[in-house]
């Protein structure tokens, strides 16, 4: 089974959280190091606001990114303590999000979508991506 690079997975998963932490540190340094002026208060407010927005984005969107290993017959969703395996017949919908270079996977009987990274940046998912938009539906039907 093929799986995306772990470094790439953790980078995508925790980028916004790490960037938010840097914003909080910058605001704390401004608060503790420099004199109290309206300009500094405004900068501290901007840094803390940006950090809260980035933390919200992380918890709303990027906690749904999962590690997925694939073969031509099975899909394995790797959780923190367990691995769930599904057949390709159980896949209801699979979409490529080209701007983010991620896939969105919908399993029959599950409410939530699973977002995952492809194995390589340019590799298509086992021949599922083609010029014809109905080829995926034919493959999954």
Shape: elongated
Please report the number of helical segments. Answer: 3
* Number of self-contained structural domains: 2
End-to-end distance = 22 Å
| Radius of gyration computed on alpha carbons | 20 Å
Strand content: 15-25%
What is the count of β-strands? 7
- List the uncertain runs: 122-127, 129-137
Can you summarize the main beta sheet? 4 strands, antiparallel
Question: What's the pLDDT, averaged over the residues?
Answer: 82
Share of helix, binned: 40-55%
Query: Which H/E pattern describes the elements?
Result: EHHEEEEEEH
With strands numbered from the N-terminus, the spatial order across the biggest sheet is 1-2-3-4
- Structural class label: alpha+beta
Describe this structure in words.
- This protein has helices at 6-33, 38-60, 135-140; strands at 2-3, 67-70, 74-78, 83-87, 91-97, 102-107, 114-116.
- A hairpin with a 4-residue loop joins strand 3 (74-78) and strand 4 (83-87).
- Helix content is 40%, strand content 23%.
- By secondary structure, the protein is α+β, with helices and mostly antiparallel strands.
- It folds into 2 domains: 2-63; 87-140, no CATH class.
- It has a 4-stranded antiparallel sheet, with no helix packed on it. Strands 5-6-7 form a 3-stranded antiparallel sheet.
Give me a quick take on this structure.
The chain has 141 residues and is an alpha+beta fold. Helices cover 40% and strands 23% of the residues. The strands form two sheets. Strands 1-2-3-4 form a four-stranded antiparallel beta sheet, with no helix packed on it.
């Amino acid at each position: 089974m093929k799986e995306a690079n772990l470094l790439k997975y953790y980078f995508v998963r925790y980028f916004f959280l790490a960037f938010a932490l840097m914003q909080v540190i910058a605001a704390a340094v401004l608060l503790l190091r420099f004199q109290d002026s309206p300009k500094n208060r405004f900068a501290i407010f901007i840094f803390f606001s940006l950090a809260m927005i980035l933390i919200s984005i992380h918890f709303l969107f990027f906690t749904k990114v999962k590690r997925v290993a694939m073969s031509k017959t099975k899909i394995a969703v790797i959780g923190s303590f367990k691995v769930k395996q599904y057949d390709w017949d159980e896949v209801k919908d699979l979409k490529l999000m080209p701007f983010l270079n991620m896939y969105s996977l919908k399993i029959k009987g599950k409410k939530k979508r699973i977002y995952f990274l492809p194995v390589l940046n340019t590799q298509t998912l086992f021949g599922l991506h083609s010029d014809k938009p109905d080829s995926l539906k034919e493959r999954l039907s």
